[in-house]
Amino acid sequence: MKTVNIKPLLSPEWGISGETFVATQFGACIEFKTTDVTKIQLNFITDDQALSFAVKVNQENWQTVAVLEQKLMLSIPTKFAHVRIMLRSVGTDSMALWRQTVSLSTMLIDSGVVDQVPHDVPYITFIGDSITAGEAMAQDGNHPELSYPLLVAEALDKPLNRIAYGGTGLTASAPFQEPSAITALWQVASAIERQRVLTDLVIVNYGTNDFNYHATPEAFAFGLRIYLLELIKRFHAAKIILMVPFNGAFKDVYQTEIKRFDNFKIMITDDWPVSNLRVHPLISEHQQIAEYILRGI
């Protein structure tokens, strides 16, 4: 087996810590092309985490592959292959994942060569909470590989940059305060810088957790105002779209606050076919959300 340089293959959701690569969010991806490779081994420092990844080879359906004994083993059935490996689940919640991280140490292949997939157009960036992360989309849990951010990115033929953590929001009412929405813009884990990529379109979905945990409109307005300034700082050259929560929460606040700026567009979503009986949209609803976003941009 020979070692592959992993760094060029990692999505922006990965950061660097010493000799390892770390991720703290569902949807973190490893993407590459292979020639004459039949076996791939990814080695993790998992700290006994129960990890699984969604894997797609060429145009086949996504398959779930578990990490066993700190190794993810893949067989490549074709001479040429396009491979995507996306973090799907861990044996902990989002806040604990931020603290513990998923740590990838090395990638090995049996033969052949691995090439990075070049991205010659700007990224599309999606930001939000567990809905944006693709959590709890079906009875078997998370499906970031089927979530609306990836569906929109694929439809636009743009690479995806996702910043999404379950339980987070823009007020102190949100159940998870680590990472904060602002911290997540700049860091991929505690004290580990998030990779900067050129992006020309940013779509933000916050407010569901704040509303569900009884944030007042005044508190949300204050949190949103601060956050919008940080978005301008981080993505000053991009078009930024703010999605109102699917249940219509804080719609008036959004409409009032963006009048202070020239940088934002609101996307009203409370008339979309998304059930408010559940916090997390189902797979079919993510498909509908993606279609509505594509119409709205």
UniProtKB/TrEMBL annotation:
GO terms for molecular function: hydrolase activity. Gene3D superfamilies: SGNH hydrolase. Residues 126-248 form the SGNH hydrolase-type esterase domain. Pfam families: Lipase_GDSL_2. This is SGNH/GDSL hydrolase family protein. Keywords: Hydrolase.
